[in-house]
Amino acid sequence: MTEILITPRSFASTSSRPLDILKKKGYELNINDTGESYTRDQMKRLIKGKEGVIIGTDPLDKDILAGADSLKVISKYGVGLDNIDLKVAYKQEIKVTNTPLANTASVADLAFGLILSSARCITEADRKTAQGFTGKIVGNQVWNKTLGIIGLGSIGQQVAARARGFNMDVLCYDINKNRNFAEIMDFEYVKLDYLLTESDFISLHLPLNEKTENFISAPQLELMKQEAHLINTARGGVLNEQDLFAALRQGKIKSAALDDFDFPANEVPEDIRDKIILTPHMGAHTKEAIENMGVQAAENMISVLEGETPEDLVN
């Protein structure tokens, strides 16, 4: 019997459809019910004998894949592939897929929500009001401002579309330019330095890899407006967080909102606590996105195991 490992904790948590699709195929399902992501040691043990794995953020590095004696397909539940050693997977002829469009709308919603929350200091106001504060907290307007989007994949495009509802000028930076979309949406691609100096809000939508690690660090932060708000709903590693702390402390930018980060949330320096919004990597966590990701991950898995080529094949 074909054995499948399912690691994401939220898999099929809002709908039974993803599991129903797999059960109809008669697979033996090994589902993560620990309430936590698997460790490297756990993955080394669990991957043995599995022909497929539906993976979340759990590690799939060189050492783990070395013990994947039966693995044929890695079906990523989500978009980011930085936890998977793609080179090793390719050498071992393991197919890798992901679900690039399943959570697009949900992440874009959160990104724009963080833009609004940063501009109007909503989380700061909530904390202070609950403590009895009755004064005024002065924020910024979003209407008619300039939004810089770094990384114009499917999520970046949807953020750009939402910005039009607020009559924002949209500047974009991406190595791969979608000229047709730019023409339809009436925005322009610009050089990175220009985007950083001209934008009131900057939203990051980059994959994490060797080229994008610490993509935004001290030199880039120096170029931003003092009233700029930085939003990151991508991976924490694309932003040098210690440089960000310094920029916030020194008043070089006004605020930041992060949905993924590499530091302990309770260790944000107190002197910048009101300048930073943190959310627990929840961009993809809506009922709709969870179901969509589960269904697409399951269908990608089945497609590879049945000898077909899914549209979302990465390698």
Walk me through this protein's architecture.
The chain is of the alpha/beta class and 315 residues long. α1 runs parallel beside α12 (287-305) and α5 (104-120) crosses α7. The chain has helices at 17-23, 40-46, 62-66, 86-91, 104-120, 122-130, 154-164, 179-185, 192-198, 218-223, 241-249, 287-305, and strands spanning 3-6, 28-31, 52-55, 73-76, 95-97, 146-150, 169-173, 188-189, 201-204, 229-232, 255-258, 276-278. The strands form 2 sheets. The chain has a 7-stranded parallel beta sheet, sandwiched between helices. Strands 2-1-3-4-5 form a 5-stranded parallel beta sheet. The radius of gyration is 21 Å and the shape is globular. It contains 12 helices and 12 strands. The model has no long low-confidence stretch (mean pLDDT 95). α8 (179-185) links the parallel β7 and β8. The chain folds into 2 domains: 3-102 and 286-305, NAD(P)-binding Rossmann-like Domain (Rossmann fold), CATH 3.40.50; 104-278, NAD(P)-binding Rossmann-like Domain (Rossmann fold, 3-Layer(aba) Sandwich), CATH 3.40.50.
